[in-house]
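Researcher: Go.
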Amino acid sequence: MGELSDRFAELMARMAKSDAELFRTIGEQNARVRQIADDLVAVPEAGVKADATAACLAPAGLLPAEQCDQKALKARFGKVADAQAWVESQIGKAPKKPTWLVIEQTCRSGAWPLVAARTTAASKGISSEQLDERLTVLETKLTQRFDRLEALLLVIAGGNPSSSPHQIDQG
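Model: Structure:
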């Protein structure tokens, strides 16, 4: 009985050591993920390039690069309105009526370009509608980034990205 007790104590000590290593590793990974998420949320200064981690989680283009050329887009869609409808079905409503140049930029970047606010409007402050619109856009971007981050974490963890915890069968 004493030998069994000693073996059990040794097993518990090894488990405590491996648990401590596991929690330390998880803590370090959480800190890295938190830093990446903070970098994604932070808006870089003008002229400053975003770091490599933000670039890997940036929105992906809607089409392959060779299909984002204006000539290829015109051949594929024919009219700006058709192209706009397709892009809106992918990423949401356009901020204003886009041109071919805006459609091309959007297909490359995966997001509508930001509309610059007029200085007169900025001096008066923003209306609640404008604030709601900005928050909606930010929420959409964050949701997309969290989805991509979750997929990356599942790939890193060796899980299947198509079987997320939200899709577990409840029956």
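Model: The helical segments are 2-41, 52-56, 70-77, 80-91, 100-109, 119-124, 128-156.
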